[in-house]
Each structure stands twice: as C-alpha cells, then as structure tokens.
Design a protein that fits this description.
heterodimer; A: alpha/beta; Peroxisomal Thiolase, Chain A, domain 1; 11-stranded mixed sheet; two-stranded antiparallel ribbon; 16 helices; about 20% strand; B: Peroxisomal Thiolase, Chain A, domain 1; 10-stranded mixed sheet; two-stranded antiparallel sheet
C-alpha cells in the first residue's frame, strides 16, 4: 500500500462510555447513554432526551487546570479524546527519543471536525441585554462591564485545534472542518489527503461536539428532527433523532512513518469521499442519491468493489427520510447481499460534528473483534428499509474492510473506508 | 498515479468595504481610498471602538433573484452569494446537469451565526431578568424559532445556499480557522482540483463580525484599534504607532479549474494557484512568536509546493493586521525565509485600506494577488507614516507600484495559530514552466 494511511492510536468519550473500550462494551451489551438531559433541569420538557457525558468533570478530563479558564465544555471533551488517542499511539515517547523533534513536530498535522459556534456562548450577553432594555448604546457599555474579557477566545470554533497544537507542539498542516454531521469523517478524509500528498507524516484527527446544548433541543424539535421517545434507526416506529455530546480522536500516520518507528498498527484508512446533494440547508433528498454517490466514490478512492466490504456503519440517525434513503442506497449498491449493517447513534445519540470520528473508531473495533453489534432497540424493521441486513442482535463482518457513512445539513454525505488489517 | 493537474484561476468575485465587486474594489485600492468609517449598521457609541470597515449599500433583494432564498439569508451569506455570483459569471462557466458532480465548493466561513436580533428576542422572551427561565424555554422554545431562523443559524447555511444556487453536487468543505479560513479554503480547493477530485471548485471565504456581539468580543480582548477620531488611518500595518486591527467584512470567491480544460474552453486565466503552505504556530491563541516560527513553515511550505525559491517571488500580500505582534512576527518570518532578499521583495498589506475581513481575508487577498499579477501593479500599504525599526522591509508605502509580477505570495494567519501561505503565478510563467 504505497502512500497508505494507517491508524496507530484512537480514543473516545461518549454518552455511553468514558473511553473507546467502555463505549464499545456498552454498545455490544445493548446499553444506551441517552437520558433526560441532566446538565439543566429538563423536567417537564416535551423533548428532554440527550446523550450527555456522564459524571462530567473537566478537571479529570483535562490535566492543564489553567487551560480550563480559556475553553468550553465541548473543547474539554475534544481535548480528552485527543489525549486518549495520543497516549494510545505512543508518538510522544517516540518523539522524545528523536534527535530532531522539531522536524517531527513540523510534519505532524492536526485535523478537526468542529461544531463551530453554539447558542449558549451568547448567553453571557443576556444580562447586559436585560439591563440595557433595548438601548444599544447602553448595551455596549454594559457588555464591556459584565462580560469576561476572554469571551471571544473561549468561544473560538478552532480552540481544540489550537490547544492540541499548543499542548503537544505540533506545527504541521491543519484544518478545522465545520460541516455539521460530516465534520468528523471529513477531518479523517482531509488528514489522509495531506498525508498522501506528502505534506505531513502523521496527523492527529478529532471530531467533537456538545450538540445537546440547552437551546438545541427545542430548536431541533421545532423543525421536526427530534424524537421525544428515543432514537430508533431503521425501525418502523422511528420518529426522529436525538442529539448528544462526545468526541473521537485518531492518530493517523503514513505507513512508512508508522513502520519506521515500529508502531503498533490497528488498521488503515483506505479511502474517503464527500459529496453534496444541493438540496438546501436542512433537507436531504429522498431516495439516498447523495449516499449512493458518496459510497461509490469512496469505493473508487479505496480501489474496493462492493463485495469487498465486510460491514457498514450507517448514519442511522432515526430520521424517517434519512434512514430510508440510506437503506435504498445500500440495496442499490450492495444488492441483495447480506453485508451486516449497524449504527451507533441509538446508544450514543447523534453527536453531529463528532459522529464520523467516533463511529469510525467503533467500526474499526467491529472489524478487529469480528463482531458487529446489533441495534438493540430495533423491534420491527421498517418496510422502507427492507433488504438491509440490520438486526437487534450481533452479526459477523464478512471481511476486514468496513464502510462508515455520515450525513449532514447542507445535504452533505461523507464515507470512510477502513480496514483492521493492513 | 496520474500527473497532478495545474490549477487555473478563471473567475473572481468580491464584496469588500472598498466596493461591492472586483472592479470597484481594485479601483479603490489604486486610488488609495479607505473603507473605514464610523459604524453605521448599529449604534456602536457605547463601545470603546466605534469604527469599522463595513460593506456599503449591498441590497439582498438586488443580489438574490430567488425570493425563497431571501428567508435564509444572513449578512455574511449575502456577501458570499454576491461574490460567488460575480466569480461564476466572470469565469463564464457554471455547473450543468452533466457537470454538477464534477463541481466542488470550498469555503471559509465566520464564527458568528446567531443574529443579534434573535438574541434580543430570546432575551425578552426567555431571560427577562438576564437569567434563562428553563420551564418557559422547554414549553415554548420550539414555537419561538422559525424554520428559516433555525436554518440561518447553522454554520453550513452559507455552504448550503451556494450548493443550491449553483447546483454544485460534488466535493464540499466548510472551514473555520479564524483569520486563516479563507487562505486555507483556497489551498484545500487547489489540492482538490490538482488531484482530480473535482474539475471546477468555487472557493473562497465570507464573514462579518461587525455586529454588537462581535464588536464586544474584540473590544473586550483589546485587539482592535480605538482610533475613533481618525478612522481612515486607524489601520496602519507595520507603522510604529499601530495599535490594533480594524474590523472589516465581506467575501471573496474564485473559480478554480484544471488548467488544460480552461485553455481548451478558451477561458481567461488570471493566474495559476500554484502552491499552498499550511502550518500551526502552536504558541499563543492570538499571536505567533516574534521569531516568526509557524508562519515561516507556511511560507517555506508554499514555496516548496509550488516549486519556487525565495528569489523568484516578486510580491507578497501580507497578513499585516496592524497589531503590534502580528506585524513584527510576520516581518521576521519573511526575513527568516528570504534572507537578504527580503529587502528586495515588495510587501504590502491591503488591510490598511479595507480592514480585516477575518474568515474572508485570505480569499479576498488571494484575489488581490491574482489582480496584482494581471494589472502588473503591487498594491500599497496605506497609512505607514512612522517607520518601525523592527519592521524595515519594503512595504510599498509610497503608493501602488507598477511592476511586473510573475509570482506572488498571500499570507493569512489566524487566531488559534493556523497559518496559510499561497503562491500565485502569472499565466506566462505557468506556461513557461509547463513546457
């Protein structure tokens, strides 16, 4: 595999588990991390469900306590996943032994799937707004008195990118993707681009989000996207998604770099794709046309045939239109073959900008362990999803190659093809 | 593997504080105008800084023909649509049903998505005394927001509108690395065309932070100039008395395409987008170190990627924000890369006239490099009246300079430490190299 990209470390933090192993085991045993939101009093809310990080303690998640003053909850979650992945990979120990760590740092990139901005950041301005009662001059005066001087820096959408760099001293190529539900997958895809182009030798990739913020629940509900009963992918009774918090991080290296340092290789990223449906801000096209094209392009990019794929991690967000479209795309491309299909959002919730990264890690674990967890709350397969090998119980992957599908607002679709065997 | 393609710039469009299209912006650059005024968009008199470089008189109804889209428009996506339309018209090519999947979109977009009006309404409805009433938000929140409002607040709103308007169905990326966003977007787009992932990419950046929240954020940080009494000279990059940047707003978009195809269809080619350097300073959130570490790797990376050397560059469009630290760090980075040659290089910051367009800056300044090549003219650094000993390069402070430009660099460095450097080559030089 010339210019191949391998995975040498990973880590995640989700509603279902504090690391990759805990998350994997929760999914395998059919546990869901989705509960009534507890970071604020959600009692009486018509749409209270959220996939929140349990026992959230920033001091335990980020070792640099001074840093906590300059970052927000979602940044803490993202940085924790990065620390897990970097530790897992052993690249810092490797760098410590190098005669020329400067060149190593210059050739280490950072690629991030970021949730961009949040409604709750603006809440710091509610007091000055209330106190100025519509007088804009007065608002300016009050805002200068009341709001923290570091407000802007705390809310930067590229904070995780910046602090991964500062924490580890990495100085290579970087990107901060703010593309809703495909951000995590696309961070992997763009890291692979720069690795294949020879601009860097290794990259830290992370997708993070705290999608279940206070205002998100009523607003997602307002456009009919949220379920009040739980996220039930591919089920006849599915009626919407559920949003949550989480982060997934990977260390990617060129195969050369990984082999040169004798790294343990957990798998490889074989190819990727990103395509747009041009359907508008919130809509997805019926029939899964965008998913089909994304799958075909990812197969082409990885030089794989449909038959080579051993399992699929579907977007499976519980939306009526999206799940049906995905199912249609799967049957169209993979025919009546029984490629095991699963999804993880029923357990972790939809972590939007983090989902592609987290689900790629879980797909890698499926392939490595030869186990495809079921969608535990699937009761009756929707007639619109017929022909797809999705099950409440466990299945076995047919090969060591997996396909991960992510979808997003703006009609975006992204696929990652990865393998546990390099 | 197939040979990487050469990437042509065949269409440009922009909306800036100096003009609502390419021609008026370029003419304003030549005549030395400043786009900085007292803020007119809202009452800013309560803030320490009351000046900014605003876009003037751009009307949504005149820019957007599709009435339905108007509901989804925010000020920054309006800038994006206007600049993109100019670029697509200028390129003389647009997606058709046969080519839609071979068109891509790469944009750098800003961080402000919630509109101030919405926040005010939210406060009156759910936070009368400044504290959020959770019971009320739970009960009424879903009825409070409209579907177009929800859509407008998404970071991908502008990206979605551009896809829909032009029926672009191929590759897509939306990036945000603060002030480096636009430069990084052009760099990524170049790689997408180079590798054959798309034949055409609409690429650029758009932003505004000139609203009460954005202005408050920068004022609190002390990053912007408060020279309220002399707006036109408030942005004075590389000047000894510089005291912060001036907020600007706007958008810049380019059509990038495979050189060969562009030649075959007889397209007008402004320049080749020939190389990208992309690095991280990993120093402080707001600054690169005085040594120029970080920017140095970006500039070197761009030169290497383009196959150019330090003595082949004629003009450098600087990030040049007019903050004490940036201008020093950037000057030292240029010296580190160019050595003694640094003093022969024409370096200028167009932010001296149009302010800092944040996520749009790199895209607009990339276009300015292409125009500088086309018109054989290096833009000036305005307002540089008091030289700084530590910033002693040739900043073209006397006025725009007629000169042959065959290779130009564009620097963009962001809060958070992301750095982008792009190389643009004249069509003649690109053709000569290809032989």
């Amino acid at each position: 595999m010339q210019n191949g990209v391998v995975i040498t470390g990973f880590g995640c933090l989700t509603a279902s588990g504090a690391d990759a192993t805990a998350t994997w085991e929760a999914v395998l045993s059919g546990e869901s991390g989705i509960r009534e939101a507890a970071t604020w009093d959600s009692s009486g809310w018509p749409w209270p469900l959220a996939g929140e990080i349990k026992d959230y303690s920033p001091r335990d998640l980020v070792s640099d306590r001074k840093l906590l003053k300059f970052i927000t909850r979602q940044d803490v979650i993202g940085l924790n996943a990065v620390t897990q992945a970097v530790t897992h990979s052993g690249i810092i120990e490797h760098r410590d032994e190098l005669a020329d760590p400067t060149s190593f740092n210059d050739r280490t990139g950072v690629f991030v799937g970021s949730p961009a901005t949040k409604h709750r950041y603006q809440h710091d301005f509610l007091s000055p707004l209330a106190d100025s009662a519509g007088d804009s001059r007065e608002f300016g005066v009050r805002a200068m008195e009341d709001v923290h001087p570091m407000w802007l820096l705390r809310t930067l959408p590229n904070n995780v990118l910046a602090y991964v760099g500062i924490q580890y001293g990495f100085k290579g190529a970087n990107a901060n993707i703010t593309a809703h539900g495909v951000s995590g997958s696309q961070a992997i895809a763009e890291a692979c681009r720069y690795l294949r182009d020879g601009a860097i030798d290794q990259a830290i990739v992370v997708g993070y989000d705290s999608a279940s913020e206070l205002e998100a629940l009523p607003y997602y509900a307002s456009v009919g996207l949220l379920s009040s009963r739980g996220l039930r992918p591919f089920d006849r009774s599915r009626d919407g998604t559920g949003v949550g918090e989480g982060a997934g991080a990977l260390v990617l290296e060129t195969q050369d770099a990984a082999e040169r340092r004798g790294a343990k290789i957990y798998g490889g990223v074989l190819g990727s794709s990103v395509v747009a449906e041009a359907a508008g801000v919130l809509s997805v096209r019926e029939g899964g046309e965008g998913v089909s094209r994304a799958i075909r392009l990812a197969l082409e990019d990885s030089e794989m045939r449909p038959d080579d794929i051993g399992m699929i991690s579907a977007h499976a967000n519980g939306s009526r239109v999206s799940d049906a479209g995905e199912a249609q795309a799967f049957t169209e491309i993979f025919g009546a073959s029984s490629i095991p299909v699963t999804g993880f959002k029923w357990s972790l919730a939809h972590t939007i900008a983090a989902s592609g990264a987290i689900e790629s890690i879980l797909a890698l674990l499926c392939l490595a362990n030869g186990r495809v967890p079921g969608i535990a709350n699937l009761e009756e397969l929707s007639p619109e999803c017929r022909g797809v090998s999705v099950s409440a119980s466990e299945q076995k992957p047919r090969s060591s190659v997996g396909l991960v599908v992510s979808r997003a607002f703006a009609g975006l679709n992204s696929c990652i093809v990865l393998s546990s065997h390099v | 593997m197939t040979e990487p393609r050469t990437v042509a710039v065949t269409g440009v469009g922009m909306v800036t504080p100096l003009g609502n299209d390419v021609e008026s912006t370029w003419n304003a650059i030549l005549s030395g105008e400043s786009g900085v005024r007292e803020i007119a968009g809202f009452d800013a008199t309560g803030f320490p800084t009351r000046i900014a470089a605003e876009v003037k008189d751009l009307r949504a109804e005149e820019t957007i023909e599709d009435r339905k889209s108007l509901k989804y428009i925010t000020p920054f996506s309006l800038f994006a649509l206007a600049a993109a339309e100019e670029a697509v018209r200028d390129a003389g090519v647009r997606p058709t049903s046969a080519t839609a999947e071979r068109w891509g979109l790469v944009s750098g977009s800003g961080m402000m998505t919630t509109e101030f009006d919405f926040l005010q309404r939210f406060q009156r409805e759910f936070a009368v005394d400044g504290q959020i009433d959770l019971v009320r938000l739970g009960a009424e929140g879903a009825r409070f927001i409209s579907s177009p409002e929800f859509a407008r607040h998404q970071a991908v709103a502008g990206q979605a509108l551009l896809h829909k308007r032009y029926d672009i169905r191929g590759y897509s990326a939306n990036l945000h690395t603060a002030c480096a966003s636009g430069g990084q977007a052009l760099g990524l787009a170049m790689r997408v065309v180079r590798s054959g992932q798309a034949d055409f990419v609409l690429a650029g950046g758009y932003d505004t932070m000139i609203n009460p929240i954005g202005l408050a954020g920068f004022c609190l940080l002390g990053a912007i100039s408060a020279d309220n009494d002399r707006p036109s000279s408030a942005s004075r990059p590389f000047d000894l008395t510089r005291n912060g940047f001036v907020l600007g707003e706007g958008a810049g978009f380019m059509v990038l395409e495979d050189w060969q195809r562009a030649r075959e269809r007889g397209a007008k080619i402004y320049a080749e987008l020939a190389g990208e350097g992309n690095s991280l300073s990993s120093y402080r959130i707001t600054d690169s170190p005085p040594s120029g570490d970080g920017p140095i790797q970006a500039i070197r990376g761009a030169l290497a990627d383009a196959g150019e050397t330090f003595d082949s560059i004629d003009y450098l469009n600087a990030h040049g924000t007019s903050t004490p630290m940036n201008d020093l760090s950037e000057t030292n980075a240029i010296k580190a890369v160019f050595g003694d040659r640094a003093y022969d290089l024409a370096v200028s910051s167009t932010k001296s006239q149009m302010g800092h367009l944040i996520a749009a800056a790199g895209a607009v300044e990339g276009i300015i490099c292409a125009l500088a090549i086309q018109h054989s003219t290096a833009p000036m650094t305005a307002n540089l009246g008091t030289p700084d000993e530590a910033c002693d390069l040739d900043y073209v402070s006397e006025g725009c300079r007629p000169m042959q430009i065959d290779a130009a660099l564009s620097n963009s460095f962001g809060f958070g430490g992301s750095n982008s450097c792009l190389v643009f080559r004249s069509p003649q030089r690109a053709e000569d190299r290809g032989r």
